[in-house]
Specification:
89 residues; alpha+beta; seven-stranded mixed β-sheet; two-stranded antiparallel ribbon; 2 helices; globular
Length: 89
């Protein structure tokens, strides 16, 4: 169960020719499932969209493509999808 979750979007910065948005997500529990993280941070508009992102191999976890929709994301991990990087703290 995930309790109150706080996150903030840091100032965007330019990486190569692509615009990258950094999101800092403060985890208050032991872990959060990947698709819930994508929905909570508004990277995905819905659970269905989050699942499609994962199934489409668009999500990386610590630099490696993540194919598990319910992967347990813990503090210290970095998730990247669609030019957005989520840093879990």
């Amino acid at each position: 169960m995930v309790s109150i979750i706080a996150f903030r979007i840091l100032s965007p910065y330019i990486c190569s020719l692509n615009k990258v948005i950094m999101i800092e997500f403060r985890l208050t529990e032991e872990y959060i499932e990947l698709i819930k993280l994508l929905k909570t941070t508004q990277v995905a508009e819905s659970g269905a969209q989050a699942k499609m992102m994962v199934e489409g191999k668009l999500v990386t976890r610590n630099g490696t493509v993540e194919l598990r929709k319910r992967a347990k994301i813990r503090k210290g991990e970095m998730i990247e999808v669609s030019g957005q990087v989520i840093r879990v703290i």
